[in-house]
Write the structure tokens for this entry.
Amino acid sequence: MTIRKIQELLQAQVLLGEDRLDEEVDSAFGADLMSDVLAFVQEKTVLITGLVNQHVIRTSEMLDIFCIVFSRGKVPEKEILDEAEENGIIVLSTKFTSYTSSGILYTHGLPGVDR
């Protein structure tokens, strides 16, 4: 699924990466615990989270996650967005909860990460 399709389905605001919306992801993972992200995330996964801090960016960088969707309408502070931009991470913000966002993407064919 393309990031553009994710953005459309989640009615998300593009905060970073407008020029990269046609990139593809193979799965989605929703978590606020970055230890879970470290344990389970695979390549080409979009991260859905309500956690808005630099740990999310650093974890994403370590795992080559190139797209983060912040749920519940959250928008990171400028310094967090600057760090995401430095690391080439696409950042979206949706009004939906993480659970609803995951459900929308799953029902449109984007699988979750398997253990």
User: Anything to note?
Assistant: The CA atoms of residues 1 and 24 lie 5 Å apart. The chain has five helices and five strands. The chain has one domain: 3-107. The helical segments are 3-9, 34-40, 54-63, 78-86, 98-107.
